């Protein structure tokens, strides 16, 4: 076998099976994160990916992810996102929607469903500073924000 083929066998594509996800990852009260793509598991150095589940009618503690960018893809359920210094803004995302969270944005995930578990896939732009849990006194009534861009108004 030539060196190129041998190299890609060891350093090529990695498949992480659902039953191999790692629960020993940074956690926030109210959710269960499970890591799939990490340096230890796959050799990834520039991103982190995994899943998150939140039970029906449950919410997480407020947190941010340091200087990392995060993307959440909603697989099942309705993700109600609150964000801001006092979680003063709110918007919902449904199955099939993507959510982008910029660096340092304080936020909270809420499962807006009465009976469905919220299940999401998430990816972050790095391996360090995965979660910083915060003690925030949220406003009682957040402002509803419609996620629109210049092309889809």
Describe the structure.
The termini are far apart. The chain is built from 2 helices and 11 strands; from the N terminus they run αβαββββββββββ. 8% of the residues lie in helices and 35% in strands. The longest helix has 9 residues, at 3-11. The strands form 3 sheets. The chain has a 5-stranded antiparallel sheet. The mean pLDDT is 90. The protein has helices at residues 3-11, 39-42; strands spanning 32-37, 48-54, 63-64, 70-76, 78-83, 89-94, 98-101, 107-111, 118-124, 132-133, 143-144. Strand 5 (78-83) and strand 6 form a beta hairpin. The chain has a single domain, classed as Jelly Rolls (Sandwich). It is mainly beta and 153 residues long.
Total of DSSP H or I helical runs spanning 4+ residues: 2
Look up the CATH topology. Answer: Jelly Rolls
Strand percentage lies at: 35-45%
What order do the helices and strands follow? HEHEEEEEEEEEE
Question: How many beta-strand segments?
Answer: 11
Major β-sheet annotation: 5 strands, antiparallel
Classified in CATH, the superfamily is Jelly Rolls
Look at the structure and give the mean pLDDT: 90
The helix content, as a percent range, equals under 10%
Assign an overall shape: elongated
Question: What is the alpha-carbon Rg in Å?
Answer: 17 Å
| CATH top level class name | Mainly Beta
Cross-sheet strand order for the largest sheet: 1-2-9-4-7
State the secondary-structure class: mainly beta
Distance from N terminus to C terminus (CA atoms, Å) equals: 56 Å
Q: Domain count, please report it.
A: 1
CATH architecture classification name: Sandwich
Unreliable spans are none
């Amino acid at each position: 076998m030539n060196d190129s083929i041998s190299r890609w066998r060891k350093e090529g594509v990695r498949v992480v099976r659902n039953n191999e996800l790692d629960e020993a990852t940074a956690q926030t009260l109210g959710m269960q994160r499970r890591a799939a793509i990490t340096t230890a598991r796959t050799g990834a150095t520039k991103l982190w990916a995994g899943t998150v589940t939140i039970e029906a009618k449950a919410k997480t503690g407020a947190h941010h992810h340091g200087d990392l960018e995060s993307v959440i893809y909603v697989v099942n359920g309705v993700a109600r996102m609150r964000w801001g210094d006092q979680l003063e803004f709110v918007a919902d995302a449904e199955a099939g929607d993507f959510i982008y969270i910029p660096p340092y944005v304080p936020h909270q995930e809420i499962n807006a469903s009465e009976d469905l578990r919220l299940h999401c896939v998430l990816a972050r732009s790095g391996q360090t500073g995965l979660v910083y849990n915060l003690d925030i006194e949220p406003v009682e009534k957040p402002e509803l924000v419609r996620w629109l861009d210049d092309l889809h108004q």
